[in-house]
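Q: What would this chain look like folded?
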Amino acid sequence: MIRNWPLDEKTLARYWAKVDKNGPTPAHRPELGPCWLWTAAQSGNGYGSFHPVHDQTVNAHEISYRLAKGEMPEGFERDHLCRVRHCVNPDHIEAVTVQVNRLRGSGITAAHHRKTHCAAGHPMVPGNLNANPQGIGRGRCRECTRARSREFTERKKREREGRFLTGKPVEKVCTAGGTTADQ
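A: My prediction, written as structure tokens:
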């Protein structure tokens, strides 16, 4: 029994009837062999959905992983090495940490982590990175951070000088569309 799901012969027969073991071989990882494609219902994010009992829904790849490899270690999640979400081949699924899974993916975090240079062309290397204030990811380009800081300081200095030269408050454009005097 897996997580209180009755995986008797009848349930397993229903499960395997929904698996096509002759799926495509991933072009980026041909050594993995063919995908086993889930041919039944899929969740909104593309993972196969199976109902071992009436009101329980389970990711289809979770069942094949547990049958072949056992329980998922604490703090780990399943990563599809083939990048096919409805694949249930247990050899295509690896237990990894959440961070590793995110960095292997195609999301913003992963794309940022793979950058070699910032938008201004500075190298993203340890000596040129400030720690990210949120404590995650790779951090920010130190050269660009310094440049932004200098620009901010200069802009504030010009605003102060403009105020003192005229003796009047500097007029700013109000977000409501009009102008307002700086107090």
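The radius of gyration is 27 Å.
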